[in-house]
What we know:
Strands 4-7-2-1-13-17-15 form a seven-stranded mixed β-sheet. It has a six-stranded mixed β-sheet with strand order 16-19-20-21-23-22, sandwiched between helices. 25% of the residues lie in helices and 26% in strands. The chain is elongated.
Amino acid sequence: MRKLALSLITLLACQASFAQDKPWQGKFEQLGTELPTPNEYRTGSGAPGNAYWQQQANYDIEVELNDQNQSITGKEKITYINNSPDALSYLWVQLDQNVREQGTNTLKVGQFSLRDSLPAKFAAQGLGISDYDGGFKIKSVKDDSGKDLKYIINKTMMRVDLPEKLKSGDSYTFGIDWSYNINDRMEDGGRSGLEYFPEDDNYLYTIAQFYPRMAVYDDYEGWQNKQFLGRGEFALTFGNFDVKITVPSDHIVASTGTLQNPKDVLTKDQQKRFDQAKKSFDNPVIIATQAEAEAREKTKSSKKATWHYHADNVRDFAFATSRKFIWDAQAVKIGDKTPLAMSYYPKEGNPLWEKESTKAVKNTLETYSKYTIDYPYPKAISVHAASIGMEYPMICFNFGRPNPDGTYSDRLKYRMIGVIIHEVGHNFFPMIINSDERQWTWMDEGLNTFVQYRTEQEKYDEFPSRRGPAANIVDYMKGDTKYIRPIMTNSEQIVQFGNNAYAKPATALNILRETVMGPELFDAAFKEYATRWAFKHPKPADFFRTMEDASAIDLDWYWRGWFYSVDHVDISIDEVKWFTMRDENAQVENKGKKTKKGDLAQKEDSESAMNFSNGPEPFSLIETDPRYYGEFHNRINDKAVMAKFADKNFYQMKFQNKGGLVMPIIVEFTFKDGSKTTEKIPAEIWRMDEQFATKVFAFDKEVTNITLDPNLETADTDVEDNYFPREESTSKFDKFKGKEGK
Length: 742
């Protein structure tokens, strides 16, 4: 009783110490109040609450592209529906083209330095030396009756003041007229713009962020009106779009939405091929041929044509147009739907694009539908443009251009396929599962890159995936933490953007699937998240909570380590001891070894700690003292236990967590007969001691070699201490060297 009382006093003292020393935070401490408090809008399970709401914005747009002076002129009517419980006195509209206006904050906050030799292109970009007059020219903002509305433009945001508050459940319609000059992407990059082809004096336009767009108003933070500086992308509201696009009559237009007037803009042959494509599931049908495209390149028609598109329940709208376009399409079977996979590309993309692009679109729709929801839209388009990868609903713009003679390397082919999968995959994240990119880049880029990796591995043989495999993130994870930020960092503050927002979260999800949760539980939980939040606005806590809710696995330690910290994985084998049970009826062999004295003996013992040169150490099992049974009347059969232990080999291993990131311990044992077995210890082994863990393994056979993380599943940053015996396994991981940080 006295011993029990002392134990309780000690425990209470420890608890009091922790309370006084807060904020103490262990690796397995629950996220708790670090996540938003659940409410009627977002539940503790990660699902939308019974009072969840979101706004809607419907657009009627008429836009004309001028191929002579490379400009856009447009007018739009926006109907904004207030589904929130709040009355709104003003609306915020995004003016993303203003990131290119004179005096943009993007240039002001960007850091740039001169060096001895600097390409002129980079100097012009870094210092903003350009004659280009960018940004929206807002001509008018009027209510539905034509009366001017008061508005204030703050860089990339415009506040429109309402004549009276917009009450909950009501809608408001207003119009904006605008224009802007299309940027040359060769000069300034950018997510959209033009590409000029001097060989035939033609343009290829990839047009996005081309209209003033409603900002998101939600239950989480009200208006998402953070300025667009160029990196943190977009938070957008779902709605219906009716868009009329006027271009030169010899252009082919690729666009979000369904074409409403094919007879007005397509030839009879193109209409016939288009209908054939809707029934072709095995191969693409070329709707606009290369010969037709080359003929159009020479016409330079002065006439105009208007392409009319309609899209329901999308968060954005984009299009591409050129007289250079070749166009192919094929049908894809997704559940009870048959969306079209399409590609648009100039002749400069062939033969690579005709061979691979639409196939990649099809593979993407099939794999992403498997892991999330069935693709709901009528089509998915891949458009070829130089040096870009950018996504919009139903359409994306992708790089991958062969040499002028049509030849290309395997590296270019796989990079092109990878970017097409990635950008088409963005239809799911964030175009459908509509996260806030302005705040959390990883929620769309990271999740998307993870499913991209699944597509590459499942649809292609030996695809050289860059992001996803654990070994490929090692160099980043073990880097100087001054240049690393947690995944849970706002988009504009991220250092090493590609590693942080794409590669690390994708790798974390891959490890979570393959090593921590297992594919069955992970896939079910991931699909539940996608189903719950399709066509809604999820936040990080909704993802974290859903993955736990749908799997019955406590993952707070995993989110804390991989998403909230800059710790890395480095687990070592510090010690291995081999034991066999002592035969009490026989003379113990080498009994005198325990009595060795002197420096030489100590040195031998130290060296043998990392090999089996001293053989097994004996230990004894004794009969259980009755006091250990407490009030129980029945007893264990000690002799039977001893008999079971008699011929076994016991291996006591001590592990050290050097990197700080707790992870499962995966141990591969190689036996004397050459056979192997793998033991996987859950990460919870580190709960009571986050630095050291000791575990005993029992086998019938003798072990000759031990390897920690044999398949490089955990992104361990130092594999030199992952094997035993040390001197016999120095080449164990040679086959993996060179893969890390690929």
